[in-house]
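Thread title: Can someone regenerate the structure for this chain?

I was given the following input by a collaborator and told the matching structure tokens would be attached. They weren't. Posting the sequence so someone can regenerate them.
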Amino acid sequence: MPTNAMRSSGLIYYVVLGIAVVNVSTASILVRLASGEGVHGFAVASWRLAISSAITLALLIVLGGGLSRLLSNLYDLALMAASGVALALHFMLWMHSLAHVNVAASVTIVDSYPALLALIGRFILGESYSVAQYLGSLVAFLGILGLSIVSYTGELAPPGGNPVFGALLAFGGMVSVSAYFAIGKVMRTKYSTLEYTAVVYTIGALIAIPLTILANVNLASLTPF
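Best answer:
Regenerated them for you:
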């Protein structure tokens, strides 16, 4: 019989999972609303990574972690750095795409990354998949192609947006997040989720903020509602 402590622990997991689902499912809408207020996607991405970095680093310091082990392994550190760059590009490209193409198209394209992960797993990581999984990847890529073709009509564009450019940005966001997940799959066999995310988010923030500044985007342009 489950104890009260076990029930409480299980309830906490469900609450955290529920919060995560709400955050993920509303992120694109909130970014699109911010874009409508004149906030550049690069600025949103930079703040997203900076805040995540601060939170995960604080938790890592409080709870402890194996950063000394990571710092002594240059190969792992290089992979995490590459993952951080990929994550920064993912957020920047995807969030900026929402100024040019509608939420449904942008999210559909960027969330097609499992199709690319199947190819990465097969040809880089040496994994094997079923015929159904390969067919699913093919259908996903066909869907991306279809959305890209439809974008030429301009029907997917928000006011003042360029849907073709937006589709390309979303596709770049999909490619970069695929690299992030592929590297994470390897690193998570050696390091905890907190260790991995703290390092990768920090590197991502250190990449996104300078790129945002170089793009002449004002990080302080956010205004209250």
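Residues 51 and 205 are 9 Å apart (CA to CA).
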